[in-house]
Each structure stands twice: as C-alpha cells, then as structure tokens.
Fold this protein.
Amino acid sequence: MSDAYFSLVVWTIDTDMDQFKDMLESIDQQDYREFELYILDNNPSSAIEITIKEFFPDIVDKVHYRRLKKKSGGAYAYNIGAHFAEGNYLVYIGQHDRLSQGTLSSFNELINSREDFNSIIYSDSDELIGLDRRNPHFKSDFNKELLLQTNYIGEFICLPVSLYRKLGPFNEKAQTAYIYEYLLRAAFKNEGIEHISSLLYHKRTDDKMLTKEQRKEAEFYCKEHMALAIEYLRQSGVIARGRVDASLKKWHIEYDETGFRRFSKDYMFLKEDNVRLFTRNNVRKMYAYLSQPDVAVVGVRFIDKGFTLDNVGYIYDSDGAWYPAFHGQKIFRDSYEGLASMPRDVAMVDSGCCMIDAKVYRMLHGFDTSLSGKDAMLDFCIRARKKGFRTVVVPKCIARYKNRDNISEGASHDFLMEKHGELINKGDSFYNKNLPVGMENYVLPGVN
C-alpha cells in the first residue's frame, strides 16, 4: 500500500490567535510531510489568513484557506473541508489543540500495516493547560458500551475519505455532537473504529471552575450526545432512557426492563451458592443490557471487605494471566476515568454471577469442559466476541463472595493458550497498554 496523504481540517471561530499559532506550529513540526491543511474560517476578521502567510512560510504551500459566509456550525465546516480535500484521509483538529510530532507518521504506519485500510482512527490524548500537559487519557480500544455512556474517544479522529463517502456527511443538525454522531453511525453499521495507544493529541483546556454559562453549555453537550445514543439504540430495537451525570462529563443510559420474564428461556442466570447479591432487581437490570442484540454476557461488580472493590470485570495480559479490574481500590473514591462505576465492554466478567444469552450459549455449545475456573469464562467470552458479540459489566449490580474457590488449573491454562494464544498474546484490547498490568491496575504509573 502506498503512503497516506492527509487532509488536515480545522474550523476556526472565536479564535485565540496565540493558541491558533501554537496549533499551526505543531502541524509544521510533523515528521510525516504528506499532508495539506484546510482552514475553514468563521471569524469576522482576516487575521487567520494573514497569520498563515506571515508566520508560517514553510507550510503556506500546503494551506488552503476558505472563508465561510454562513455560520452553520462545525459539521457544516467539516463537510466543506471534506468536499474540497485532495487527500485520502481526513484528520479533524481543534483550532487551539496540538499534535504530537509523530502523529501523522503513527497514522500512516497503522494504515500501511493493513490491506485496504478503511477504519476510523483515534488515539490517546492529554490536556494542554498553558504550557503544561496534564491528565493523560489512556483509552480502551473501541468500546461500544462505554461510548454509549460518554464520548471517551473525543473529537480528534482520522477518517478515510472512502468511509466518509460510504457513511455520508456529518449531521449538520448536531450543534456539538457531530463527531460523536459519526462514531455512533460507524459503530451501528459495524464499520471499523481503531485505536492507537499513544499520546498523539493534546486538547487545549483550563483548570478553572465552570461559570454558570459554561455549565449550561456542558449540560447541553451531554443532553445532545445522550439523545443521539438513545436514538441509535432505538433504531436497533433497544428501548432506553437517560439522565445527565452531575459531573457534566457523561450520561447514564438506562435500558428498558419491562421485557424481563423471570422464567424466560432466552437467558441463563448463573450465580454460585457462595455469592451474595447486595442490590435489588439485579436480574432485571442485567437482562436489560442483554436485550441489546450484540450482547452475549453481562456481569456485575464484586466488592470485598473494607469498602474495597474485588473486581469490575477482568483484564488479561499477553501470557493469558487474568487480573480482577480495580482490585483493592476504595469503593467511594474516584477510579481512573470513572470506569469502575460505568457500564462498559470487557474481556471477561466474573463467572460467580453473570447472565448469558441462551441463543449464544447454544451456538457456542456452552462452556468448554476441558477448561476450569476463570479460564472457562475467558474462553467463552473470546469465542462469543469472535462471533461478533460483546461482554458487558454492569457496576450498579453489586455482589460479594462469602469465600473464593474458583481456581484454574495449570493444564487448563495451557489449553487456553493453545486455543487462543495468538489473540491473547496481543494483550487485552479493552485495557490500555500504557497502564500497569497486574493486581494493581487502572492506575496511572507513579501515582498512588
């Protein structure tokens, strides 16, 4: 495959010129030089155009400037940029943000690693406050359930022009959620969304308290995103409602529980005798998540003594050793990115209490009796995922072991690696490789 040619698209409005120059500088410093830059300008003055010509002569031949007569929002600007772009990949950049020096080369490396690459790309990011980089966001590979609860991917994406032509233009009715809507559109049409585990993007922000007006804007942002998530679920036959979280950074999707029947044959509820459930209507809540047509397994959050977490799902390393996610962390403290309290896709849930779609169970011929303990559950979840099904953990359902005796044998683990070693060696795609793997996980390196 030949090298990619990137069209970098930037929409400018109410622009801070110092921060805009900083963004341009990061583009000028790219290792990979096969790109063009489209500036779509909604500012009243010509300062943007003058700045490009006077301060950045090295890239002026790569820059296409277009003044937008209509103030029709970011989606309109992005569609204009896509229409005129000459590249085969569109990269959407915030006007005040920065790229790492190797951003475009990292994209090109991923694109060239595949034949006919046609997936949306996103990366890890951090926050740029003044001159300081803070708060690294080490993200999961594509995580549909998490995306339905918050836009963890963000606004920085690389979009193949061929996929843009297939999926159509950005939704110009969306005021803030046009990137998010596009991600949902791709996800529900089963198009590829791929992640690079590297800090390639630096989002400009500040650490000031939100003003009353900013809180209103943040609330609108959440409501618009949440409404789109609910609408896409409705189109797939799933009834849901939602509410905005007090943090104004995420929302809570509540799936309809009315279809639950206690003795229905379309699900299997598994609970070991030594497991106690602490929350009410757990089976109904789990069934509501299982009502999504692509969900095969639903698990719960397990707590331990001393108000600590036992696990919120499991992660595995490249050797196939599995570890309880968030183990030992305090229940009432914020977890990394708030993930311990958010429904999300995981590699495996705790087999001590879970619900399985009966059709999927029959399709996969149940658990592999050659495997024991957690190995059997991990194998089942891997086989379900290969068939296009997801495993979801639901933290609002809480359980606890009276005692623990679910242990995998050495021979079982060897057989697990024989079956799935090629996939397992790549590591858990729902766990970022920049975070530590082991009993202490989902913590930033060097942070207590």
